Amino acid sequence: MSDTAMERGQGGAAPLPASADMSEVRDWIALLKPRVMTLVVFSGLVGLLVAPGAGSMHPVLAMTAILCIAVAAGAAGAINMWYDRDIDAVMRRTAKRPIPDGRIAPRAALVFGVWLAVASVTVMWMATNVAAAVVLALSIAFYVFVYTMWLKRRTPQNIVIGGAAGAFPPVIGWAAVTGDVTLVPLLLFAIIFVWTPPHFWALALWAHDDYARAGVPMLPVTAGARETRRQIMIYTVVLAPLGLAPWIVGFSGPAYAGVAVLLGLLFLRHAYAVLRDAQDEAGRSLTRDAPAKACFRFSLTYLATLFAALAIDRLLLVP
């Protein structure tokens, strides 16, 4: 805590400016990785909305379930920032995060994250059911222990395996309504799981120097830009037809299928542009309009639009 904040309790001291108060609040919110949380919450919401019986779930319980998913994602993010504070400090993209920049103490961040993790799982259990709470706990544990502490610093497959952590939210949302996990939420899990490598590797091409400086074995660092671009293409080729899986099993209608086909083709176009681009080889930095940057941005649009189309198709168009 800053000296100014400590002076609030001293007689005659000037009150803490509102801007300083808000700055500290923003630092604690930043620990939760709110931008990552947005997509996590959205995919969890879609899993909840399309689950059988969602319409009969009390709105307060539904909102509580989504809040628990958000808090759990934030908890995992806070613990991740605590553990990765050493490498965050040497990466330009993360050096200004609250812990490496000295604005929040590491121990405080860890306690904050653990407390939120326990609270989110407990409330989910009380508000919905054991299945949703167990999957929620598993998602936190997978992100913290499997991805952050085990895979991230040891293998270029960190994103491939660790991507499962970000694929849990639709399963959690579905389980919060039904109390079980069936084929459809597993298909949604698979879509996010296969989407994660091309999404993150496009960013890793852009942030290659940062990862190399921090000693993180992301694929562009260990295998080079050319192999990374090839892997982005391979995973996108698998992802494009996988997006049709809800329609293939009869869960969604032709409107969703049309959107999935269009999005898949657009993603393939972006991945192919990355494959053909060689400006990131021989140590050269990517320009601002590089295909990898465009592919990363589109990957976010792809997943958000695909899941939105599923929800709209299921709720409004499928009899």
Textual characterization of the structure:
The structure is a single chain. With 319 residues, the protein is an all-alpha fold. The protein folds into 2 domains: 27-180, UbiA prenyltransferase (Tetracycline Repressor, domain 2, Orthogonal Bundle), CATH 1.10.357.140; 182-319. The protein is built from 17 helices and no strands. It is globular and about 50 Å long.
Secondary-structure blueprint:
Layout: H1 3-6, H2 18-31, H3 34-50, H4 59-83, H5 85-88, H6 106-127, H7 130-151, H8 158-162, H9 164-167, H10 169-178, H11 183-206, H12 208-214, H13 219-222, H14 225-242, H15 245-248, H16 254-276, H17 291-317
Helix pairs in contact: 3-4, 3-10, 3-17, 4-6, 4-7, 4-10, 6-7, 7-10, 10-11, 11-14, 11-17, 14-16, 16-17
Organism: Neoroseomonas soli
InterPro entries: Protohaem_IX_farnesylTrfase, UbiA_prenyltransferase, UbiA_prenylTrfase_CS, UbiA_sf
Pfam family, one: UbiA
* CATH fourth-tier homologous superfamily of the largest domain: UbiA prenyltransferase
CA radius of gyration is 21 Å
Q: What is the arithmetic mean of pLDDT?
A: 89
CATH architecture level-2 label of the largest domain: Orthogonal Bundle
How far from one another are the termini? 56 Å
Helix residue percentage: over 70%
The number of E-state strands comes to: 0
- Strand content is under 5%
Helix/strand-derived category reads mainly alpha
